[in-house]
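Reading a protein record of the kind used here takes little practice once its layout is understood. The reader may check this reading against the record printed directly beneath this paragraph.
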Amino acid sequence: MLPSNSPATPVALSTDVDPDQGPRRRLAVLLIVGGLIGLVAAVVLLVEKIALLENPDYVPSCSINPVLSCGSVMTTAQAEAFGIPNPIIGIAGFATTTALGAALLAGGVFQRWFWAGIQVGVTFAVVFIHWLIYQSLYNIGALCPYCMIVWAVTIPIFWYCTIYNLQPLRHSKPARLARILTAATEYRGAVLTAWYLLVLLLVTHRFWDYWITLI
C-alpha cells in the first residue's frame, strides 16, 4: 500500500493523432456536397424525363438553345444506356455517395474490401460519364446542363476517392510508384483543374461555330 504522502501515479494521456483523420474528413465533406449536388441534378433530370414521356411536346426547363438542350439528349438511346433512364442510376449512386460521406464525417471506419467496392463504383461512374461526354459531343451534338452538373461532381468524387484509396501505397515499393503517388497527392488540385479545362476545351472546340455566333 502506498504511503499517504507518496506522489500519485501519473496517468498516461494518449497523444496519438490519427494521421488519416484530416484526409478522411475532407473526403467526407466532398462526398456529402458532391453527392447532394449530383442527387438534386439526377432527381430533376428524372422529373423532366417523366414529363417528356407523358407529353412528347413538353420542353424541358434545361432546353435553352440548340446546343444546351436536354430534350435533344433525353430522347436518345444513350439516355437509357442500361435499359432504364440514366437519372435512376444517378439517384442510386449519389444517394450512396452522400450516405458514405455522412458516415465518414460521423467517424465511421471501413475495411479495405469496402473501399475496394467504392473504388469500383466511382471508377464505373467516371468511365460512364466520359462515355456520355463523348456521345453528347460527337454523336448527339447537344449538351444537357443538368448532365454537365453530374459530370462536374463525378470527376472530383472519383479523383479524390482514388487518391485516398491509394495512400497506403505511398510508402511501398517500388519507390517510383511511391513518388508518382506522392506527386499526384500533392498536386491533386492541379490535376483536377487540368481535367476540367480539358473537358471545357473539348466542349468549346466541338461547338465553336455556335459559340462565335453569340459574340
In short: Residues 8-17 have pLDDT under 50 and may be disordered. The radius of gyration is 23 Å.
